[in-house]
Specification:
By secondary structure, the chain is α/β, with parallel strands linked by helices. It is 36% helix and 22% strand. It contains 6 helices and 12 strands. The termini are far apart.
């Protein structure tokens, strides 16, 4: 059946392809697979599973937004700035625990000194976890250090100090690097394997996949995003949740915090 085109009059070949038993069977099999997958997925979504109450702590302002923080930043007194931020995050952590949270995630680069090198700070942080009876993630960033690190420690309700998880995908184009990348710890808790990942790690599939393969069922994600880019990373977090069937608690400084279930649904 050849019909001319309307512009250059060249013929366009068309063919009548008869449907065979094979084509019909393939179409029906495809439809059956799609329908079956739909019902299996729906059953999994609505099947009751173990739950745990979680919280993402979001200050609502960046370091430069707060005169108190920025004054210490401008002087280069990162220890003083750390304790000012800590005072605010401690209060919010207690509020979250009062609402029943058992896992509480802090945003990226909350502390600017290494807790592991400051025993008094470690005691204060582990005491907070014991007081709140929660697993709390404590993030720190050594920006002005030749051995730059961007890491997360987790304190347990028993006062244990776990970690660190080190950011595995530092943002090279802003000069960030991490001398301790390559760590993928997973911690066993009463509600399953718990671990962390940091900011730009959201944009890569490998970190969540590695942690999940080692038994993680819940990840805290600590972030320090530009508001303009926060929603892109937020979307990546949803993809990581779906790909690995894990829940993610995403804590950001200003706008990008979210709690996602293992199906990528945003719960809060």
């Amino acid at each position: 059946d050849e019909r001319p085109t309307t512009n250059d009059q060249r013929p366009i070949p068309t063919y009548h392809l008869p449907l065979t038993t094979y084509h019909v069977a393939a179409a029906l099999l495809t439809l059956a697979i799609v329908i079956t997958a739909h019902f299996i997925g729906a059953a999994m979504i609505f099947t009751p599973t173990q739950t745990v109450r979680v919280a993402a702590v979001q200050l609502g302002e960046d370091l430069g937004d707060s005169p108190d923080y920025f004054t210490q930043w401008a002087k280069g007194d990162f220890a003083a700035m750390t304790y000012l931020v800590l005072n605010d995050l401690e209060a919010m952590t207690r509020d979250a625990a009062a609402q029943g949270a058992k896992v509480i995630a802090w945003p990226e680069a909350a502390l600017w000194i290494d807790p592991a090198q400051n025993p008094e700070l470690v005691r204060r942080l582990t005491s907070l976890a014991k007081e709140t009876r929660a697993y709390v993630t404590f993030t720190f960033y050594l920006w002005n250090d030749p051995n730059s690190r961007n890491e997360v420690y987790t304190a347990t309700p028993q006062g244990e100090w776990l970690g660190p998880y080190a950011k595995n995908h530092p943002i090279a184009y802003i000069g960030e690097y991490s001398v301790t990348a390559g760590k993928y710890p997973v911690y066993q808790t009463p509600f399953g394997g718990l671990s962390n990942f940091v900011c730009y790690d959201n944009a890569y599939a490998d970190v969540a996949m590695r942690l999940t393969s080692q038994g993680a069922v819940l990840l805290t994600s600590s972030n320090h995003d530009w508001p303009e880019g926060a929603w892109g990373f937020y979307t990546h977090a949803a993809l990581r949740a779906v790909e690995n069937r894990i829940a993610i608690v995403r804590a950001d400084w200003r706008v990008g915090s979210a709690i996602l279930d293992p199906f990528g649904r945003v719960l809060a």
